[in-house]
Write a structure and sequence with these properties.
Blueprint lengths: L1 E4 L1 H9 L2 H16 L9 E2 L8 E4 L5 E7 L3 E8 L6
Parallel strand pairs: 1-5
Antiparallel strand pairs: 2-3, 3-4, 4-5
InterPro entries: RelE/ParE_toxin_dom_sf
Length: about 80
């Protein structure tokens, strides 16, 4: 599985507080091993974000990603629930 990161993901990541950045790195390591790991609470998005998925960093923060051909994943956004807009 190959994982890519959009410019938007990095722009939002760089705005996060240091403690959240650490959590993001930890969760991304779990994701790389198994993106369906129950600790991530991975779920499919609906509505305008149909075709995208998200997983939890903590109660307030999420990562949005898209799967292409089951082997290529693009991390699209990271942050609080405002990233869904």
């Amino acid at each position: 599985m190959k994982i890519g990161y959009s410019a938007r993901f990095w722009r939002l990541y760089n705005k996060l507080p240091a403690d959240i950045k650490i959590l993001v790195k930890e969760r991304l390591e779990i994701f790389k091993n198994d993106y369906l790991d129950p600790r991530l609470k991975t779920h499919k998005l609906t509505g305008e974000l149909d075709g995208y998925y998200a997983f939890r960093i903590n109660y307030a923060h999420r990562v949005i990603f898209k799967i292409f051909d089951k082997e290529i994943i693009l991390m699209v956004a990271v942050g609080d629930h405002s990233i869904y807009q």
